[in-house]
Structure formats: C-alpha cells, structure tokens
Amino acid sequence: MTLLAVVLAFSLLSHPLSLLVLLGLLAAWLFFYLFRPSDQPLVIFGRAFSDRETLAALVVLTLFVVFLTSIGSLLISAILIGVAIVCLHGAFRVPEDLFLDDQEPGNSGFISFLGNAATSAAVAAAPAVASRV
Fold first, then answer.
1. Tens digit of pLDDT at every position of the chain (133 positions)
2. In sequence order, what are the residues at sequence separation of 6 or more whose Cβ sits closer than 8 angstroms to the Cβ of residue 115?
3. Which residues, listed in sequence order, are joined to residue 44 by a DSSP beta bridge?
4. What is the largest CA-CA distance in the chain?
5. Distance (Å, rounded) from C-alpha 118 to C-alpha 87?
6. What are the start-end ranges of the E strands in the chain?
C-alpha cells in the first residue's frame, strides 16, 4: 500500500494541474455535500437544490473529471505501475530469513529485555512446577 501511495503521489506531483483539479473536486464535495447543513437546501443563483440533486451533480462532475479528462488515465497508469512494482517485489522476495528456527534465540532486538524477562521467569518457575508434580 505504501508503494502504491508513493507512486500515486509522485505521479500527481509530477502533473500539478491534475493535482489541482482533484483538490478542487475534493473541495467541491466537502463544501457542497459533506460540510453543508442537511436542514438547509443548497441555493445557487436563487434556485434551491435538494440533497439528491446536489449528489447527482457532484457524481456527474466526478465522472467527467476522472473519465473524460487525462486525470483518469494518469490515475490508472499510476496505480498499474504501483501494482507492477508490488508484484515484482513479491516475485523477487526471498523469504528464507523471515522466521527463526527453534534453536535460535529470539531475544535479539529492540525490545529484547522483555523476551529475556519472560524466559528467565519461565526458567525460574520450571523447577518449582517440576517439584510439585
């Protein structure tokens, strides 16, 4: 997900007009639909628009911006490049060193003091448990 987000961000930053258009579309959704009080209709040039009409206009505007401009192809190509990078990473990743064997201690790392405390507590409790049995 991080690689996809980085590729998408790089693609949008390399095309600033597309980024501005998407930010304008986001601002329209926020201003006209999400942050508007639901009890008051939207009034533009003296005409009141209902919630359904506002939603329909924003959906049509979004479809126009995404599919009928170059922004849609930019977003789709960036997502496909990101997916290709993720697939290449998955294909060439060698997962040999991901898991520890049972013989290797797992207490080397940043929070190793927790592992040491747990193992020393278990070792200390083992003779007491064995003597009760």
1. 888 999 999 998 999 999 999 999 999 999 988 888 878 888 888 888 888 888 899 999 999 988 888 898 999 999 999 999 999 988 888 777 666 665 555 555 566 555 555 555 555 555 555 555 5
2. 106, 107, 109
3. 47
4. 89
5. 39
6. 42-44, 47-49
